[in-house]
Write a structure and sequence with these properties.
Pathogen-related protein, 2 domains, five-stranded mixed sheet, about 280 residues, alpha+beta, about 25% strand
């Protein structure tokens, strides 16, 4: 059996005849030049062409391009749409049409202390991450555990945080984290069922979303955003209720959190000593 084009070339869906038709892409054909450059420079594995690792990696990369940028699931070439389901960490199973409406980031992240998919639209989620990862957010398959029809593998997502990240947290507050200029790395596992044409029928993703946000915010992973309070007067007050601070992680860098006043946000400590800040807007 000959391999489908999306299994041979990681950019196949950007090159085929359908890719140039009007209305195929959400906001025009996406440009993956930066992400590809980042991938080539910082990938941890170099899979041999035509190896199963290489083939599965290509399929997933093309799948990501389609589900993120093609609004009409009937035009997704990498999935068996009638049988397609997507889930994360054993949660809700989404159809292709539900993912196209909600967005890949929202379906992958859901509700956490750092992020609320209920309050963030498809477009807002992509803007937030595209802005933070100005050099791209690359993906690679790092280890393959089993082959078709049930494919299981470990993966790595990575990119340098070049600009601020801002979104709603689960408490309904908007926060803004300044750029760290550091490489952000995220690891997880996937289990995918494919048909005889290597089209994805079921895709299960397993990972800890907090891996991402603790690096973006450089806060302690045990910080509870629910304990962040807003100032009730014009005088700046701590974002954290200091009476409950001892219940939070002792490693929380309080000197890196700034406090909004009624006029403008001012740091708790001297700005000159603050290398990174996280602000509640």
């Amino acid at each position: 059996m000959s391999l489908p084009h999306y299994a041979v070339d990681c950019d196949a869906v950007l090159k085929d005849s359908m890719s140039n038709k009007d209305g195929v892409w959400r906001n025009g054909k996406p440009d993956y030049t930066k992400a590809k450059k980042l991938f080539d420079a910082h990938k941890s594995k170099s899979h041999s062409p035509n190896s199963l690792e290489f083939i599965i990696q290509n399929i997933v990369k093309n799948w990501e391009k389609e589900v993120s940028h093609k609004p009409n699931p009937s035009q997704w070439e990498t999935v068996d749409l009638a049988n397609y389901r997507f889930s994360c960490n054993g949660g809700q199973q989404y159809t292709g049409y539900e993912v196209a409406k909600q967005g890949t980031y929202n379906a992958l992240i859901g509700e956490t202390a750092y992020y609320s998919s209920k309050l963030i639209t498809f477009e807002e989620s992509h803007l937030a991450f595209r802005r933070a990862f100005g050099e791209g957010f690359a993906w690679e398959l790092t280890e393959l555990y089993s082959g078709p029809p049930t494919v299981s593998f470990k993966w790595r997502h990575f990119g340098r945080m070049t600009d601020f990240f801002s979104c709603f947290n689960q408490s309904g507050k908007i926060y803004k984290a300044d750029a760290t200029l550091k490489m952000i790395e995220l690891y997880g596992v996937c289990v995918a069922k494919v048909n005889e044409h290597l089209m994805i029928q079921d895709l299960e993703v397993f990972y800890d979303p907090n891996q991402l946000f603790t690096q973006l915010t450089e806060m302690c992973p045990h910080l509870s955003f629910d304990k962040i309070i807003m100032p009730s007067s014009q005088q700046a007050e701590p974002l954290l209720d200091m009476t409950t601070t001892t219940k939070l992680c002792p490693h929380l860098p309080l000197n890196k959190i700034i406090v909004p006043s009624s006029q403008q946000a001012e740091p708790l400590l001297d700005k000159k000593t603050t290398t990174k800040v996280c602000t509640i807007i």
